Amino acid sequence: MAIKIKNISIKGIRGIKDTIQLPLEGKSIILYGDNGTGKSSISDCIEWLYTDKVSHLSSSEIDLKSALRNSDLSLTDVASISITFNNPDLNTTKSLSCNNRGKITPAITHSHNNAREYFSTSKQENLILRYQHLRNFVDKTKSEKLGDFFDIIGYSEVTKVKDILRKGYNSIKADIKTKNFEAQINTQKETLVEKIGALVSLEKDFVNAINEITKDFKLDITIQSIHDIDEVLSKLKILTNTDIISTLSYLNTIQNTLNTLENELNLVNLEYSGFYNAFISFPLMLRA
Amino acid sequence: MLKEIVVKSGKEVLDSFFEALPNLDNVDMSLASLLSDMYAEGNLTEKNLVNELQKLREG
């Protein structure tokens, strides 16, 4: 439910000495009149209630509480503004009391905690648009006008976040320029040309090239994206390792067999030499 | 009778933007998640963003 103001009651603030009532009943209002008839007094009261300040009275030389409290009030009178809403939980009264020594004390009364939250949130919005702002607005540049619009309709947070994101973008852009990523990309492209024999700029081209290269390995996997490359590499690694292990085992067996054969041949050779020598010397032994 | 026009507040605009960010076309998911999380946690400041972007690039 949209929050609507039912009534505004003001007494003893700025140029308003006696109580005035503005029974809006949820409707908008236009105040018009000659200078000095109290239009600004009403807007000052509302600005003070919502923001705890009055922009055209913010000066170190001006005591805001004294400037707000009507000077014709007696010490016992309480200056106040009360707003009632269509949601009674938001009803709020803000007052300025004066003690015997003339010290002015402000006080605010909310009918419910929801009102405190509502007024706190409202402080983040720009509720007041004065003639002076409009006059200055006309002379501003387009971007300044856009900024003002954002402030008026409460988009200042959007502008703030937008600035943060833009600065993040600029930081990345500057980093890319500083670290010469263009040159690094070209180097990587040259490496790809050397390794896979294709000039690729897009992931799709890279994936196609790798699928072409790996199709003879019958890996039972079709690469869809760059994230599948690790899986393909691990499959290739497993296949390669099995082949090597099998070949090494075969070679080891051959080496062991050849070593045994060499030893046996040496033994046979030794035995044969002994036999040969004995055979040669046998006729001599017979003659003797 | 005049029809009431509902205008989103600044916060509502930002909430919608960061909620829709991961679903936009051609948006890097890790970057979208980073930004959405930072916004949701109230950590989206210029310094934090630059640091987190640096971590994202190096990670």
Write up what this structure looks like.
The complex is a heterodimer of chains A (288) and B (59). Chain A is of the alpha+beta class and 288 residues long. Chain A is built from nine helices and five strands; from the N terminus they run ββααβββααααααα. Chain A has a five-stranded antiparallel sheet with strand order 2-1-3-4-5. The longest helix of chain A has 59 residues. The model of chain A has no long low-confidence stretch (mean pLDDT 87). Helices cover 61% and strands 0% of the residues of chain B. Chain B is elongated and about 55 Å long. Chain B is mostly helical. In chain B, helix 2 packs antiparallel against helix 3. The longest helix of chain B is centred in the C-terminal third of the chain and has 13 residues.
Task: Describe the structure concisely.
Chain A has 288 residues and is α+β, with helices and mostly antiparallel strands. Helix content of chain A is 55%, strand content 11%. Chain A contains nine helices and five strands; from the N terminus they run ββααβββααααααα.
Quick one: overall form of chain A?
rod-shaped
User: In whole angstroms, how far apart are the ends of chain A?
Assistant: 140 Å
Give the low-pLDDT segments of chain A.
none
Strand order of the largest sheet of chain A: 2-1-3-4-5
Which range best describes the helical content of chain B: under 10%, 10-25%, 25-40%, 40-55%, 55-70% or over 70%?
A: 55-70%
Question: What is the average per-residue confidence, as pLDDT of chain B, rounded to a whole number?
Answer: 86
Task: Estimate the strand proportion of chain B.
Answer: under 5%
Run of helices and strands of chain B? HHH
Shape descriptor of chain B: elongated
Number of strands of chain B: 0
By DSSP (H or I, 4+ residues per run), the number of helices of chain A equals 9
Order of helices and strands of chain A: EEHHEEEHHHHHHH
Main structural class of chain B? mainly alpha
**Distance between the first and last residues' Cα of chain B:** 58 Å
Portion of residues within helices of chain A? 40-55%
Specify the oligomeric state.
Answer: heterodimer
Radius of gyration of chain B, in angstroms, nearest whole number = 15 Å
Report mean pLDDT of chain A, rounded to a whole number.
87
- The percentage of residues in β strands of chain A lies in 5-15%
